[in-house]
Automatic annotation (TrEMBL):
SUPFAM superfamilies: CO dehydrogenase flavoprotein C-terminal domain-like. GO terms for molecular function: iron ion binding; oxidoreductase activity. InterPro entries: Ald_Oxase/xanthine_DH-like (IPR016208), CO_DH_flav_C (IPR005107), CO_DH_flav_C_dom_sf (IPR036683). The keyword Transmembrane helix does not apply. Residues 51-162 form the CO dehydrogenase flavoprotein C-terminal domain. Gene3D superfamilies: CO dehydrogenase flavoprotein, C-terminal domain. This is Abscisic-aldehyde oxidase-like. It comes from Trifolium medium. The keyword Cell membrane does not apply. Keywords: Molybdenum. It comes from the Eukaryota.
Length: 232
C-alpha cells in the first residue's frame, strides 16, 4: 500500500522496483499452493521436480556463493513415444552480480512443451550461455566465463538426470558411446579409486636455527585464561 493506493504485484515486479519509501508498506504476501497444482496434474501422471544448486569457496560453510540456482519443472510421459515432456519450468539464478535473482525466461519458453532429449538440452544450454553472457557485467572476463560455465553445468546436471532415452549422456559421452572402464566397474560393484597418495620428506637442521622451531604465541596464556580484553 502506498498512501491510500493498494497494489498487487508479482515477486518479479516487486524486485524490479526501487526500495519502498516511508509512505509504503507491505500488507500481505501470498504464496501459491503447490498441492492444488499437483491434484490437477495427477490425472495426466505428471510430476514436479525441484532442485537447488550452489557453488562457493566453502560449500559447507557460510561463504558467499559464486552462483546459486533453483529449478522447478513439471514433466509428464510422452503419449506418442518414449520419453519425457517438459510441461512447465522455472529456471532461477542468483549471483550474476545482480541485485536479486533472475529467471532465464527465454530458456523456459524454449523448453516448455518440448520432448526432453539430448538435442533440445544442447540447444537450451547454448541459449543459456548467450543469456548469461548478456546479463553479466563485462568487468572481469575470466570471472564471467566461470559464472557462465557454472550456470550451464547446473542446467545440464539437472535435466540430464531426467532424460529417459538411450541417448542419455553419461560420463561425458552420448549417442551410444560409453566409458568402458567405469561401466565395467559399476557392473561389478567396484568403485574406481579416485584418490591418489603422496609422500613428502622434510629435513630439519640447525643451519637456520631458530627458524622453523615452534614459538609460543604472544599473549596466548592471558587469552586462554579469559582475562584478555580487546577494545575497539
Amino acid at each position: 500500500m502506498t498512501g491510500s493506493k493498494f497494489e498487487w504485484l508479482s515477486l518479479e515486479e516487486f524486485l524490479e522496483r526501487p526500495p519502498l519509501g516511508l509512505e509504503s508498506v507491505v500488507l500481505s504476501i501470498k504464496i501459491p499452493s503447490l498441492e492444488t497444482i499437483k491434484r490437477e496434474s495427477s490425472e495426466t501422471k505428471s510430476r514436479f521436480v525441484f532442485e537447488t544448486y550452489r557453488a562457493s569457496p566453502r560449500p559447507l560453510g557460510n561463504a558467499l556463493s559464486h552462483l546459486n540456482a533453483a529449478f522447478l519443472v513439471q514433466v509428464s510421459p510422452c503419449k506418442d513415444s518414449e520419453g519425457t515432456i517438459i510441461d512447465t519450468c522455472r529456471l532461477t539464478f542468483g549471483g550474476f552480480k545482480n541485485k536479486h535473482a533472475i529467471r532465464a525466461k527465454n530458456v523456459e519458453e524454449f523448453l516448455a512443451g518440448k520432448l526432453l532429449s539430448v538435442r533440445n538440452l544442447y540447444d537450451a544450454i547454448n541459449l543459456l550461455t548467450d543469456t548469461a553472457t548478456a546479463i553479466i557485467p563485462h568487468d572481469d572476463t575470466s570471472k564471467n566465463v566461470y559464472l557462465s560455465s557454472l550456470a550451464v553445468g547446473f542446467l545440464f546436471q539437472f535435466f540430464n538426470s531426467l532424460i529417459d532415452s538411450p541417448a542419455r549422456i553419461n560420463n561425458g559421452y552420448s549417442n551410444g558411446h560409453t566409458n568402458l572402464p567405469l561401466i565395467e566397474a559399476s557392473q561389478n560393484h567396484i568403485q574406481p579409486n579416485l584418490l591418489s597418495s603422496g609422500k613428502q620428506i622434510l629435513e630439519s637442521g640447525s643451519e637456520y636455527r631458530p627458524i622453523g622451531e615452534p614459538v609460543t604465541k604472544a599473549g596466548a596464556a592471558i587469552q586462554a585464561s579469559g582475562l584478555f580484553r580487546l577494545d575497539f
